[in-house]
């Protein structure tokens, strides 16, 4: 401890107004009140960092009011935090997550990630309900997209996603939809009607003109 800290500590110790002997507490008795371990309190008392008392050279004793004031002034660090991204909306799971990866995704299990992370890369994602893949989609903002699905009434108990380069999102999504054919991807899909081949319009041809002599 440097020489500049000692006067401040003495002032803190002096601010404790003559506690009665019965008001002094052991480290174990005050630890929970100041959110510190008893061992840490004794360690700081041994080097005269925190205000404490000793009776006839015995173990350190503490005045709870003075100790709380010291901890609040010198040991509490304030972390102001950062604002959440604008498009970030919490997504609540409706059922406990299943413990295993769906069998259909086994070949890419090593590259799969699971929601919720704080930030997600562009990805193809899989909505899973009762271990069945019910929907496949692609997005650049997964948490925002899941918020839209929640508003649309889709239900799931697990979300898996596969990071994919942004320029291949549609290609990979369509490949998985074709392979898995999830139920919710089929809802509302229109079947393309076969179209008749277009007839080529007949064009009139003029007979060759005779050459002039």
Count of helical segments? 7
Q: Count up the domains.
A: 2
Q: CATH superfamily membership of the largest domain, which one?
A: GIY-YIG endonuclease
- End-to-end separation in angstroms reads 123 Å
CATH architecture of the largest domain: 3-Layer(aba) Sandwich
Which blocks of ≥5 consecutive residues have pLDDT under 50? 1-16, 85-98, 190-207, 209-213
| Annotation, overall tally of beta strands | 6
- What is the general shape? rod-shaped
Structural class: alpha+beta
**What's the CATH topology label of the largest domain?**
GIY-YIG endonuclease
Fold topology:
Elements lengths: L4 H10 L9 E2 L1 H4 L7 H9 L15 E2 H12 L37 E2 L8 E7 L2 E8 L2 H11 L5 E6 L5 H12 L2 H4 L27
Antiparallel strand pairs: 1-2, 3-6, 4-5, 4-6
Question: How would you portray this structure in words?
Answer:
The chain has seven helices and six strands; from the N terminus they run H-E-H-H-E-H-E-E-E-H-E-H-H. The protein is an alpha+beta fold and 213 residues long. It has two domains: 68 residues, Multidrug-efflux Transporter Regulator, Chain: A, Domain 2 (Orthogonal Bundle); 84 residues, GIY-YIG endonuclease. The chain is rod-shaped and about 80 Å long. The N terminus and C terminus are likely disordered.
